[in-house]
Amino acid sequence: MKEYYEKKTVAFSKDSSNLFFHILTKCNLSCKHCYINPGQHGENTLSIETIRQWLNLFAEKCSQINVIFLGGEPTLHPDLLLAIKEARSLGFKSITIDTNGYLFHDILNKISPDEVDFISFSLDGATEKTNDSIRGKWCYQTVIAGVKKAVAAGFSTSMIYTVSSENLHELSMMPDLVKELGIQRFFIQVIGIRGNSAETLSNFYPPSSESSYSEKKNNLELPDNLNLPDNLDLPDNLDLPDNLDLPDNLDLPDNQPSDKHFLQLSMEQWLEIVPKVAARVAKLGITVTYPKVFLEHGEPFQCAGVVADNYFIFPNGRVYRCPICEDYPVHSLEIQNNTLVQTDKINEADLFGLEIPEGCVMNKLIQPGNISYHGDGTPCHRIACCMLKEEIS
């Protein structure tokens, strides 16, 4: 008699461990909010030999690690099946495929539910009109068909919905849809400034309700002896110690809002809508994971870089511990000659433990425009770690 066990997938909690393995950056779509940046992540497709070698770098603790195969679109990789088999043979805690739903290379007929714990589908609208305006024509019908085929074949499925101002109005329609499709886990994501989103930065931030951008003050306090690389070019509005040496090739944006169309939600929009929809989905018996985004008054900030163990691997060998800074060369680890090595200081890991009034240091450095301030310069709210999320079921 076959022993039953509850299938696992990516986890966003304290002490969790995840390996986000981008085996290529190629994709058949060009979604408005895609975070992939080939210039920073590489344009190559990893060979199956390299994939095997890189998976083995984590073999000693793989029983504690959830591995997620991503791209680009991972099913475009001709050897995804072999990569899955390697991960399974090594004994990773769980194996997930993140897909846009096109399921290339007839992947569902090549793998079995015993080999893959979850197939996670991305959908960014409850209707074809909204989803396809974000992800591309015909995408909605393709994803729906892919989910139905996967569920019929016995695969556990999850769905990712990246919330922005362009699809917030349809989030309330998602509970019925995911229930109808047989989805077992629902992930609500917050849109971030990476990849394609960063290219339209002037349209990204909602206007501050407390103060204008020019009135915002900096409360970022970093040690005077923190020596950062010379090629780190921080935003003009960021006041740091005079001897803070940042790398010149890290060209961070000014992030000044305008009165144009904004992709990111305001705090009021997020708190009013997202938790309520998540609760509705959970009442249907579906596990829901969503980012807290804004800490409650008095709630301590925790960084996943300190209390969890996440690795974001890209085809060019960069290994980040925090996804927010993936557009910049501040990765703390790198794979060189099939060996995982630490990069030169200062890198992302040197910033994880810093405490600032705004909460997340990376958010303050990379996307400061989404923080509102009171007239006295104190932040109106603190930003939570994007890798430590709420989960309800």
Tally of contiguous helical segments: 10
E-strand count: 16
CATH superfamily: Aldolase class I
Strand content: 15-25%
What gyration radius follows from the Cα positions, in whole Å?
21 Å
> Average pLDDT across residues?
86
User: What is the end-to-end distance?
Assistant: 29 Å
| Largest sheet properties | 12 strands, mixed
Q: Write down the CATH class.
A: Alpha Beta
How many domains is the backbone divided into?
A: 1
Q: What order do the strands of the largest sheet run in, or round the barrel if closed? A: 14-13-12-11-1-2-3-4-5-6-9-16
Identify the overall geometry: globular
Q: Please trace the helix and strand order, writing H or E for each element.
A: EHHEHEEHHEHEHEEHEEHEEEEHEE
The CATH architecture assignment turns out to be Alpha-Beta Barrel
Considering DSSP H and I runs of 4 or more, what fraction of the residues is helical? 10-25%
CATH-defined topology: TIM Barrel
| Derived structural class | alpha/beta
In the predicted model, the low-confidence regions spanning at least 5 consecutive residues are 207-226, 233-244, 252-260
Please describe what this structure looks like.
With 393 residues, the protein is α/β, with parallel strands linked by helices. The protein has one domain: TIM Barrel (Alpha-Beta Barrel), CATH 3.20.20. It has 10 helices and 16 strands. The strands form 3 sheets. The chain has a 12-stranded mixed beta sheet. It has a two-stranded parallel sheet with strand order 7-8. A two-stranded antiparallel ribbon has the order 10-15. The protein is globular. The two termini are 29 Å apart. About 10% of the residues have low confidence. Its cofactor is [4Fe-4S] cluster. It comes from Desulfamplus magnetovallimortis.
